[in-house]
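Course exercise 7: structure representation. Students receive a sequence record and must write out the corresponding structure in token form. The form below is the worked example handed out in class, using Tetratricopeptide repeat protein (267 residues). Read each field label carefully; the graders check that inputs and outputs are placed in the correct fields and that the protein name is recorded exactly as given.

STUDENT ID: A-19
EXERCISE PROTEIN: Tetratricopeptide repeat protein
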Amino acid sequence: MTPRQRFFDCLQRSPPALFEAALWMCVEHDKEVNPAAVMTHFKDLQLRVSYGLPMLPVSELAQPLLRRLNDLGFAQDDFTPLRPQAALLDKVLERRRGQPLALGLIALELARGLEIPLVGVNFPGHFLLRVPGADHLLDPCGGRRLYPNDCRELLQRQYGPNMKISAEHLLTAEPVQMLQRLSRNLRQLHLSHDDYIGALIDAERVLELGNASASDYLARASLYQRLDCPNAERFDLEHALLLSDDPIQRIRLTERLGHLPPNSIVH
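STUDENT ANSWER:
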């Protein structure tokens, strides 16, 4: 099977193999990555984390787990501009620096192995974690507790004072949603470093995971434009047009389609 097929095979398991699926994403960008070897080394990390945890009920160990990871050097990558390695799990495990989502996926896999209850939350702009039933969220970058006011401040710090927090922002994230978010992050990081082929690999995965938005099709269309593939660009622009609810965007998409050469048929 190809790495993409193995990625989807992980999602078909019950429960889905979230961490392994994310590792197969790494293989798509670096054929030298060996997911089985990474997972073997990960067991060593799990032992080190477990050794440093306090003697508490498992329901109270999520925050100590995150603090233990931080003690071992895992922290948010603040390198500017952020590079793709901040979202590729094999590189994050090696460097101990990454985006909140990548650190969160590592914490979720550790929690799963140690039978500590913990779930992901697709909070806008900064992935978060939660112990089911708790009245607070946890920052995967160090384990800080975030109560409703903290979440509101975090949201407004990133999106401005007019951004309102909603219940949708606090929902538990399903594995597919987390991997789609990771794919979008990688798409943007590869694009920002002019790696259009790498970005295209991630853009395709975003769409294959389902429930893609107009902006997802538009993102891939822009990559095809940069790679001089007008037929593929037209296909994605037409799909973005069908999905868009924004009248201004629909006008711009129609104009952009009008500037493309007619569809050519290759024999």
